[in-house]
Automatic annotation (TrEMBL):
It comes from the Eukaryota. Residues 134-243 form the HIT domain. A motif (Histidine triad motif) lies at residues 227-231. GO terms for molecular function: catalytic activity. PROSITE patterns: HIT_1, HIT_2. This is HIT domain-containing protein. The active site is at 229 (tele-amp-histidine intermediate). InterPro entries: Histidine_triad_CS (IPR019808), Histidine_triad_HIT (IPR001310), HIT-like (IPR011146), HIT-like_sf (IPR036265), PDZ-binding_CRIPT (IPR019367).
Amino acid sequence: MVCDNCQKKVGTVATQDVWKSGSRNTVESGGRKLNENKLLTGKSTRYSPYTTKFNKCKVCKATVHQPGGTYCQENNFFSKMSAVIRSLLSLASVAAVHRCNSYAYFSLATPYCSAKQSDEKTKAQTAKPTEDTIFGKIARKEIKVDLLHDDDQCVAFHDVNKQAPSHFLVIPKEPIPQLSACTASHEKLLGHLLIVATQVAKKQGLSDDGYRLVINNGRNACQSVYHLHIHVLGGRQLDWPPG
């Protein structure tokens, strides 16, 4: 005999319980048909041999073999693949943000920190040469930053808006607004800036794998601060052509 507590559990199993007359899952009580398996005929089942109503595939209009289905097997596969691709694209956009912060590499991600690049373009459209700039204040040490190099002609320091794992600037102490404003008298100064750039790059461990020097000159070159400065970028594989 089965106790009352166990009877509740026994009464919910898929097999018939014909030994006790009046049980809710017996044939006599109308709970199921003869030889009926509730696993096949339940409302939540995915397939039932008793079903005669099948939908048409939304794509090819063929009869769908699963009750309640909306796609045939072939088109269901492609719909699932589309969902996977959308998930990968979503993951790629997240990876792009992560790469902007930690400089991790992810092949599906968007270009390096494109949001910051867009901001620089906007600033460059409105920037104009002024008597004083933030770089001028750094050169005069009115604004304190961690200097990578300091001599009587120039200083070098990390760029706060990094575009690579290693990104620093070399600026002259003389307030030259841009490269096109240089004359023959600046020949030695410009050479000195390049030498300092190579020296600091070597200290930063960039000499073996290489690095890039960039001088933005004017609005179309995205110059947003009108104080001559050399960008030195390295620590990752850079793209070509730039911009």
